[in-house]
């Protein structure tokens, strides 16, 4: 421990202002703050501070993502071998996992290297400490991408998301769109032929095998997905790396809710909104769109709904900031996601678009909530003045 | 007439080192007045180094309100006038000569006095400085009138002193003082007490309404009480005063002299023998602390409580409005991997730490230090401040309005109803380590400059 401390003390003298290596100041700071919590004490205001800091909060989200990541790695391998006509029993667990691990690892590496590289550079230019926000984003991006996404496309998407989605607005805390979804949307709209259809969802799929996701099947007019509810719940279906297993996502959700890091208000209302919209469609019914007759809980299990509700919609920076606003925000995400899925002819998945859309509207929702408070105050002032 | 008012939101932080109920005395020979204890006051000196002063001799007056005088708590010699950056006066130190000669302001019967007589006496004796005005928490202009006056009868902050101990034996002075304060307003006079630890003695006065507050901190904050009793609208003023200072006013009318004695609590985990001290206002802390604090670590010595107090040191002086001294660990050391270790002994309301759960089960005290426990970041989390902020104001939105200095927005979001102390708990639980109290202070300062008092 003392050697590490000495190492950083030594390093710090080298990156002081005016020294040759000053351009690495933010980078050194970032690594030092991982090794040691700073000795800085309160200079103004309250003399005691909660032990929580951004690092711990963000790490917790990453820990919550681990079940999805591990299952994602396994499922990438599993789907690959199934498509090749081999069974799980033949290949064995470790071979399956190793295949997925080697497919997913490059995505993670590209996402972190490109994203953090840009973050460190911006922090240095601004003279800030490096924000921990990207540690979560960098993990989210590979998890919402198809396993076969070309690495160069991923790198461009990450760069776009970090620079245009976040840094030009001032960095973590100032962005109004969820950066991970910006990256996903960038891929989706820039490379539409490669990012949708039924070829991308299984790594190195054999041509004869149908690789359609449940959402894809519903899009093309199926009465219900051919995967069983249980498979969709456990996650043995084709799809983006981390989105398939509802169980793994629920484990993460439990951790986030138990520690209070994610807002239960948003999560709950997303589910309520989707159920309400699903039930409404059931009630309206349709003879030519079988999607309308699908029971609402299928929406929870298919595609990225669960992942979006737990990890994306709850992003505190881009969601509503008022507690009342959070209910409205979540509810509308649920409604819009199902609406886009069911009645939109072009895009099979509605979750990404509905969250991005509500990200844009979140400040407006907050405006109305806060305005209610302001109006009450103004009314009270007027009443008092009249009484005088 | 009395009523019980419940405050639902808030946070009690149980700390080690609550004051034992014994009252001691201390031998103090240095006293000081610190102009920075007073909001928006530019001091104009009336004495020089080496001048002999009596107890009650004015040391300086406020440039903005020349009638408001600040008087010496003891008789003695002006030992030093300490100046800081840009020659700002930091404190005026008086060395006591032990004779305790006093200025006689003349006593008279409060019941038959007029408001003007009372105001005049308070101003001359320096007792006017005990009264403060919301908005802005400053000493009010004697020419203005409040819509009501609040007597603060308890403190809900961590390790706060028990007001019954502070008020022991002061019943008569409290009675007279309350009558004097009642003269200052034609509106209501509120005495706000704790429902959990009600006052042993409640003065008897026509217009006095006694309110019992129940709940977690900050239910003892004046802003919270005003909102529940009579919210401030634009252009309105509410005055408030601590019940211990009402006692001093009572003694002024009883004896005709400025009686600067008060009881303060010495608290905090690093104090070996906590308790109450009978001292004079502005006393040097060293005689109270010498040999009575742990010296293994660096210490954070605070005049006031851990949430809103002023950082000082052994050679510092107790601030004008404080009834409490707190000593905790400074905590200026690095912590290896502190951000990810379980942290069983750390204070946190966040459930990523064991204490976040533990505190829901029992009120076990916790050891704390002044370490920030992290670097400054942009605001990320939302909905946290609201859990500890009982006012009907959106805290995050108001903080942001103060940062950008938008006075229209600040006004609409309720800046007149708050003070920086109300945001202390937000500052404590903030994962972004923002200096929130400082931001609110600057916001209020801007507002006062733009809108006037």
CATH architecture of the largest domain in chain A: Orthogonal Bundle
What string, H for helix and E for strand, traces the elements of chain A in order?
A: HHEHHHHHHHHHHHHHHH
Number of domains of chain A: 2
Helix and strand composition category of chain B: alpha/beta
Which regions of chain B have little confidence, pLDDT < 50, spanning 5+ residues?
none
Percentage of residues in DSSP E strands of chain A: under 5%
Radius of gyration of chain A: 23 Å
Beta fraction of chain B: 15-25%
Q: Fraction of residues of chain B in helices?
A: 10-25%
Helix segment tally of chain B: 12
N- and C-termini, Cα separation of chain A = 69 Å
Q: Helix- and strand-based class of chain A?
A: mainly alpha
> What does the overall shape of chain B look like?
globular
Oligomer: heterodimer
Q: How much helicity do the residues of chain A have?
A: 55-70%
CATH fold call of the largest domain in chain A? Ammonium transporter fold
Distance between the termini of chain B: 33 Å
Largest sheet of chain A: none
Largest interface: pair, residues per side: A-B, 64 and 75 residues
Question: If you had to describe this structure to a student in words, what would you say it looks like?
Answer:
The complex is a heterodimer of chains A (388) and B (453). Chain A is mainly alpha-helical and 388 residues long. Chain A has 2 domains: 2-35, no CATH class; 54-373, Ammonium transporter fold (Orthogonal Bundle), CATH 1.10.3430. Chain A is built from 17 helices and 1 strand. In chain A, α7 (151-163) crosses α8 (179-190). Chain A is globular, with a radius of gyration of 23 Å. The model of chain A has no long low-confidence stretch (mean pLDDT 89). In chain B, strands 1-13-12-11-14-10 form a 6-stranded mixed beta sheet. In chain B, strands 2-16-15-19-17-18 form a 6-stranded mixed beta sheet, with no helix packed on it. Chain B has a 4-stranded antiparallel beta sheet with strand order 3-9-8-5, with no helix packed on it. Chain B is globular and about 65 Å long. In chain B, β6 and β7 (69-71) form a beta hairpin. Chain B has helices at 115-125, 163-166, 171-182, 222-229, 243-255, 286-289, 354-361, 385-388, 395-404, 407-412, 424-429, 436-451, and strands at residues 2-7, 23-25, 30-33, 43-45, 52-53, 58-62, 69-71, 76-83, 89-96, 132-134, 148-152, 188-194, 208-215, 238-242, 261-267, 275-280, 299-303, 310-312, 324-329, 335-336. By secondary structure, chain B is α/β, with parallel strands linked by helices. In chain B, 23% of the residues lie in helices and 22% in strands. The mean pLDDT of chain B is 93. Chain B has 2 domains: 1-10 and 30-260, no CATH class; 372-451, no CATH class. Chains A and B meet through α2, β1, α3 and α17 of A and β20, α11 and α12 of B. β1 (36-37) of chain A pairs antiparallel with β20 (335-336) of chain B, so a sheet runs across the interface.
């Amino acid at each position: 421990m003392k050697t590490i401390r000495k190492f950083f003390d030594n390093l710090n003298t080298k990156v002081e202002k005016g020294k040759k290596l000053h351009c690495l100041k933010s980078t050194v700071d970032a690594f030092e703050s991982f090794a040691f919590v700073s000795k800085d004490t309160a200079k103004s205001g309250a003399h005691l501070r909660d032990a929580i800091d951004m690092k711990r909060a963000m790490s917790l989200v990453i820990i919550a993502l681990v079940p999805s990541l591990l299952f994602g790695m396994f499922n990438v391998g599993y789907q690959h071998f199934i498509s090749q006509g081999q069974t799980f029993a033949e290949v064995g667990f470790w071979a399956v996992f190793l295949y997925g691990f080697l497919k997913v690892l490059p995505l993670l590496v590209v996402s972190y290297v490109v994203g953090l590289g840009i973050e460190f550079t911006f922090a240095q230019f601004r003279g800030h400490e490096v924000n921990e926000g990207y540690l979560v984003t960098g993990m989210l991006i590979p998890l919402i991408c198809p396993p076969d996404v070309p690495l160069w496309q991923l790198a461009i998407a990450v760069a776009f998301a970090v620079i245009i989605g976040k840094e030009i607005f001032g960095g973590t805390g100032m962005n109004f769109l969820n950066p991970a979804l910006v990256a996903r949307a960038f891929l989706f709209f820039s490379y539409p032929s490669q990012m949708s259809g039924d070829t991308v969802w299984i790594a190195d799929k054999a041509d004869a095998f149908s690789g359609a996701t449940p959402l894809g099947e519903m899009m093309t007019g199926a009465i219900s997905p051919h995967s069983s509810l249980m498979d969709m719940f456990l996650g043995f279906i084709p799809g983006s790396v981390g989105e398939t297993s509802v169980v793994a996502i629920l484990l993460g959700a439990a951790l986030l809710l138990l520690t209070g890091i994610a807002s239960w208000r948003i999560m709950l209302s997303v589910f309520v909104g989707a159920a309400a919209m699903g039930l409404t469609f059931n009630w309206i019914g349709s003879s030519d769109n079988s999607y309308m007759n699908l029971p609402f809980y299928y929406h929870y299990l298919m595609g990225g709904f669960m992942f979006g509700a737990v990890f994306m919609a709850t992003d505190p920076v881009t969601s509503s900031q008022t507690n009342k606003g959070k209910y409205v925000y979540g509810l509308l995400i649920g409604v819009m996601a199902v609406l886009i899925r069911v009645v939109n002819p072009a895009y099979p998945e509605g979750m990404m678009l509905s969250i991005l859309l509500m990200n844009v509207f979140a400040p407006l929702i907050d405006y109305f909530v806060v305005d209610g408070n302001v109006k009450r105050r103004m009314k009270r002032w007027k009443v008092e003045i009249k009484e005088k | 007439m009395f009523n019980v008012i419940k405050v639902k939101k808030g946070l009690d932080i149980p700390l080690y080192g609550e004051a034992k109920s014994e009252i001691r005395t201390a031998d103090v020979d240095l006293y000081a007045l610190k102009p920075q204890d007073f909001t928006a006051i530019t001091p104009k000196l009336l004495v020089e180094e080496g001048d002999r002063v009596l107890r009650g001799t004015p040391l300086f007056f406020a440039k903005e309100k020349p009638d408001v005088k600040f008087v010496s708590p003891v008789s003695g010699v002006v030992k030093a006038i300490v100046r800081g950056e840009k020659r700002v006066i930091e404190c005026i130190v008086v060395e006591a000569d032990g004779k305790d000669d006093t200025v006689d302001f003349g006593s008279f019967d409060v019941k038959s006095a007029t408001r003007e007589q009372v105001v005049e006496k308070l101003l001359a004796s320096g007792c006017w400085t005990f009264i403060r005005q919301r908005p802005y928490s400053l000493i009010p202009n004697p020419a203005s009138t409040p819509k009501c006056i609040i007597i603060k009868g308890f403190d809900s902050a961590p390790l706060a002193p028990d007001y019954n101990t502070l008020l022991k034996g002061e019943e008569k002075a409290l009675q007279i003082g309350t009558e004097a304060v009642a003269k200052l307003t034609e509106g209501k006079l509120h005495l706000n007490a704790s429902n959990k630890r009600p006052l042993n003695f409640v003065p008897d006065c026509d217009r006095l309404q006694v309110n019992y507050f129940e709940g977690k901190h900050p239910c003892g904050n004046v802003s919270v009480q005003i909102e529940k009793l009579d919210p401030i609208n634009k252009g309105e003023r509410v005055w408030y005063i601590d019940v211990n200072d009402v006692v001093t006013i009572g003694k002024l009318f009883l004896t005709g002299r400025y009686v600067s004695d008060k009881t303060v609590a010495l608290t905090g985990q690093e104090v070996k023998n906590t308790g109450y001290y009978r001292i004079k206002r502005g006393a040097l802390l060293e005689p109270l602390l010498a040999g009575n604090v742990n010296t293994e670590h660096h210490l954070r010595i605070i005049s006031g409580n851990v949430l809103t107090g002023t950082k000082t040191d052994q050679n510092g002086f107790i601030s004008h409005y404080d009834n409490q001294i707190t000593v905790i660990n400074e905590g200026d050391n690095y912590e290896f991997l502190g951000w990810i270790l379980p942290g069983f002994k750390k204070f946190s309301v966040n459930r990523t730490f064991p204490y976040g759960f533990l505190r829901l089960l029992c009120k076990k005290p916790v050891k704390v230090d002044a370490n920030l426990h992290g670097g400054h970041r942009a605001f990320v989390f939302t909905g946290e401040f609201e859990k500890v902020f009982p006012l009907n104001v959106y805290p995050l939105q108001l903080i942001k309005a103060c940062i950008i200095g938008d006075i229209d927005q600040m006004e609409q979001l309720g800046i007149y109803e708050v003070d920086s102390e109300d945001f202390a708990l937000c500052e404590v639980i903030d994962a972004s380590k923002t200096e929130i109290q400082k931001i609110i202070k600057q916001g209020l300062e801007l507002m006062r400059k733009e809108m006037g008092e």
